[in-house]
Amino acid sequence: MKITKSVAAILALLTLGSVSQAETIYITGSTAFRKSAIAGIQALLGAAPNSTATAQSNGTLTSANAVNWIGKTYNGHTVNIQVSFFGSVGGIQTVSNSVAWPFLKPELTGTQSLDPTTSTLDPNGVLAVPEIAFSDTYQSSTPFTTNTLANDVVVGVVPFQWVASNGTPTGLSFSPQIANALFTAGNTPLALLTGSVTDRTTLMANSNIKGVVTHNAHPAQLFAIGRDADSGTRLTAFAESGIGVNAVVVQYKATVSGTTIASHIVYPGNTINGIYYDDGNIGYNGGGTVAGIMRDTTIDALGGYYVTYLGKSDATTALSGTIGTAAVALKWNGVDYWNGTTFNDTAVTEGQYTFWGYEHVIYGSLTGDAAVFAPALAAAIKGTSVSDGTASQAGISIYAMHVTRPGDGAQIAPSYK
User: Fold this and answer.
1) Which of 91, 102, 258, 378 has the most CB atoms less than 10 A away?
2) How far is the C-alpha of 337 from the C-alpha of 323, rounded, in Å?
3) CA 401/CA 187 separation, integer angstroms
């Protein structure tokens, strides 16, 4: 964002003052866990219409990146709750460093769009400093550790899935070495995954490498596509694979035409929350967009396939459907998580599948209704046993886990004896 915090504060006060004198609680962070987060908020608000959203950025509430509950009753008071989910790392940055972030204007109703990536404020947006962040990662894994947030509650587990685009051969296994080769350069030969002589020797009519189409020059390729640096999904993927949480990578931006990819370019550089990221070392601001792209056909235009990393909810979107209309799941180090129709959570809870992270509710010192709401929200999501709480709607209950890890991408260890 290029709007200063002082201007943001003025805009927020002017807008909110005309709508409600109620306390507003601002929440941001993880898109991978938004389904559980939204369900947790609704659980605290109780029965409809008190739990009914007044505005949302998608027709399906649990897929919305921005949601408002304006003029609701909580803790005996009238409150406004506004969420804007566009990334875990960005959530930690905005909360810990008091950076203003776009939320839907409180006076809006129904389904409305919100784009937080523009250099000027979206017409549907109002800037405010978030107080609570959902994060797929520990704050210590991010670049934003100067102001340590005192409260970090682990509320669940978020599994992730490596996904290849529509048409990729099935049954393939991804590995740390191939992940490093792919995301460091932006592309790597498909034959490294398939082991096929045909894939190694057959030259494609179009092999679009680093934005330049060369004809009849290369075997089929894998191309990297993914999220921007605000994303906890990206951080977890790069920690798990050994690429490195602060690695400089090359990712592509697709041009979509119907259900096919017409072309792509190295993702153009951009400034996010005051930090500039070079061409390629950037990506999409939401997993839902990437999930949709992974269902599209790439081979004819690009001479290859995309590979990306998605949280469980977005991976479900990408992988669901019949063969030929959906993306393709990749094994991780030889272990399947997606079985063709659903996810095998037992592989996570027992330690065979290691591509996962903890979901955190993170916040600092709060006052008023926010001081009551934040821990209550964490408790509503976490629950007290595997059979309650809302964590399992987007991930796995913490009580179901029989393994643990001390940090993002760290060694798995049994939690039983």
Assistant:
1) 91
2) 17
3) 35
Q: Are residues 225 and 338 in the same domain?
A: yes
Helix/strand/coil for 162: strand
Does position 245 have pLDDT exceeding 70, yes or no?
yes
In single-letter form, the type of residue at position 411 comes to: Q
- The verdict on 197 and 282 lying in the same domain is yes
Residue numbers of the domain that contains 215: 158-349
CATH number of the domain that residue 296 is part of: 3.40.190
Supply the pTM of this predicted model.
0.89
Of 66, 46, 45, 63, the C-alpha closest to 55 is 66
For every residue of 205-253, DSSP letters joined together read S-EEETTEEETT--B-EEEE--B-TT-HHHHHHHHHHTS-TT-----EE
Res. 321: pLDDT tops 80: no
- Same domain assignment for residues 38 and 170: no
pLDDT in tens, 168-208: 999 999 999 999 999 999 999 999 999 999 999 998 888 78
- DSSP-derived letter for residue 284 is B
State whether 177 and 148 are in the same domain: no
Q: How crowded is the C-beta side of 216, counted as CA atoms within 13 Å?
A: 0
Same domain? 250 vs 292: yes
The pLDDT value given to residue 120: 87
* 180 and 256 fall within a common domain: yes
Q: Which residue has the higher pLDDT, 194 or 62?
A: 194
Q: In angstroms, what CA-CA distances link 56 with 29, 226, 311?
A: 16, 24, 21
Residue 261 near residue 254 (C-beta atoms within 8 A): yes
Tokens of 134: 């959902």
Give the pLDDT confidence of 156-171 residue by residue, as tens digits: 999 999 999 999 999 9
